[in-house]
Amino acid sequence: MRVVRSVTVRVAPERAFAAFWQEIGAWWPLGEGFAFAGERWQDMVIEGRQGGRVYERARDGEVFHIGSVRVYEPPSRIVFTWGEATEEWDAPTEVEVRFTSEGGGTRVDLEHRAFERIGPEAEPTAKQYESGWAFVLERFVRHAGREAS
Q1: Residue 149 has pLDDT above 70, yes or no
Q2: Which CATH number goes with the domain that contains 46?
């Protein structure tokens, strides 16, 4: 079970890759319900290295360890686990994001897979993430597009 989404941004792959992981705190919609910390959200971080953490930090200092970077290949690919902070899941899922030069910009392909690992709620959770990733990637495109202007 997986969710697949693709978007195009008007910047080079190097810039798109950097905007995705280095600036995730600037574009991730924490204040729009996409935060483990709820209303206490402050920042989202991906540590740019294999073995790095994917985490969210709350204003009170609490850290939500969302996942771990499994593959870090700038500027073409990043793979990380997702859902380590989710106690309701049996095991985390995995997100792969690929950046490919295309027509003067970059095609960004996201695959969120292995929902079957989370247990009985796999199917409804995957459906929820389909619309969630569409919204999140729209925010990424707007952010990366501002960088190109």
Answers
A1: no
A2: 3.30.530.20
